[in-house]
Amino acid sequence: KLFFTDYGNAAKVERCDMDGMNRTWIVDSKIEQPTALALDLVNKYVYWVDIYLDSVEVVDYQGGKRHTIIKGRQIRHLCGLAVFESYLYTVNSDNLNILRVNRYNGTDVQSLARLDNAKEIHVYQKRTQTAVRSHACEVDPYGMPGGCSHICLLSSNYKARTCRCRTGFILGSDGRSCK
After folding, report:
1. What are the ranges of the LDL-receptor class B repeats (predicted)?
2. Which of helix, strand or coil describes residue 73?
3. Long-range contacts from 91-95, C-beta under 8 angstroms, 24+ separation
4. How far apart are the C-alpha atoms of 60 and 122, rounded to whole Å?
5. Three-state secondary-structure class, residue 156
6. Cβ(59)–Cβ(65) under 8 Å?
């Protein structure tokens, strides 16, 4: 799945398959300007920052179990969000401080460091990555991902895929080659 935020005409947090199909709103009320988003892949939770409401909230992958982690002035102007173990990590765009917040109760807000021009944060740790099983976009014997000549996108599950073409090309009738 692909998770993303939108604060155009109607602010929301959404999810869809990697090929863009099955687009679903998972949060569409009491939300104004969702910017940063982070996933807890193990427990299947979506965290987001709402910079207008000065809040960090969480829901499960279906939009249930919603609650506010932290709200208020101490977390104004946040950008970027990452989750690791018991904490959320984010960047305050005013003073460029890296903040750590307990993700279970919003306490223990700590400034860890200051980085010039920081606007995003990521955690790279083996434990944050789920195990990969064989999938429909694996490279075939001819070196083509999922048998697609240009781009392979996972679909509704790891066994299904959709082929797409780079700009200027059209997908052939075989659904795999680009012309």
Report:
1. 1-43, 44-87
2. helix
3. 91/115, 91/118, 91/119, 91/120, 91/121, 93/119
4. 20
5. coil
6. yes
